[in-house]
């Protein structure tokens, strides 16, 4: 069964055809209030989305759980922080990224720990995302060929 993973044709395959382009990716800006980010996350149904600056450079990820965590005081949920704090204050900055010419094998390895990865160009500009779902779908296609 796992001969699939020794399939050089698959492992060397470029990830380009699996990518979701930036214009179809929900994102927020560094200086958006947490309230805006939470609205985008809840309305889109995504767990986490990229954080960009005005020039489309990738700076981090923001998620529902990061936002909820940032609202927790010692005894209360401090809802006013939704308006008083911005995305840059709380976002995750340790973000898994890959380049557009990465191999499928590299993406597969990264997807073990990350439901999606951001694809950036050589200047750190955000280009697209690659989801674990699309990686597994391709593996499944090869398995059933
Ligand atoms: P999925 O494989 O569609 O369940 O997506 C996994 C995760 O990737 C989602 O929870 C989001 O964090 C992210 N994601 C997928 N598609 C998008 C998109 N169009 N815009 C923003 N984030 C996305």
UniProtKB/TrEMBL annotation:
One of this protein's Pfam families, by short name?
A: CBS
Matches recorded under PROSITE patterns: CBS, SERPIN
Q: Which SUPFAM superfamilies match?
A: CBS-domain pair
**Do you know which CDD domains this protein is assigned to?**
CBS_pair_bac
Per UniProt, residues of the CBS domain are 19-79
Q: What are the record keywords, sorted? A: CBS domain
What InterPro entries does the annotation carry? CBS_CbpB, CBS_dom, CBS_dom_sf, Diverse_CBS-Domain, Serpin_CS
In Swiss-Prot or TrEMBL terms, this protein is called: Cyclic-di-AMP-binding protein CbpB
């Amino acid at each position: 069964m796992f001969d699939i993973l020794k399939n050089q044709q698959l492992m060397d395959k470029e990830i380009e055809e699996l990518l979701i382009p930036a214009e179809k990716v929900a994102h927020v800006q560094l200086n958006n209030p947490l309230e805006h980010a939470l609205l985008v996350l809840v309305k889109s149904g995504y767990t986490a989305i990229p954080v960009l600056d005005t020039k489309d450079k990738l700076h981090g990820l923001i998620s529902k759980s990061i936002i909820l965590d940032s609202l927790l005081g010692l005894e209360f949920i401090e809802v006013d922080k939704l308006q008083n704090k911005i995305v840059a204050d709380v976002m995750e900055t340790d973000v898994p990224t890959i380049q557009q010419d990465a191999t499928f094998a590299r993406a597969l390895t990264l997807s073990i720990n990350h439901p999606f990865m951001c694809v950036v160009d050589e200047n750190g500009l955000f280009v697209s995302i690659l989801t674990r779902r699309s990686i597994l779908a391709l593996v499944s296609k090869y398995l059933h060929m």
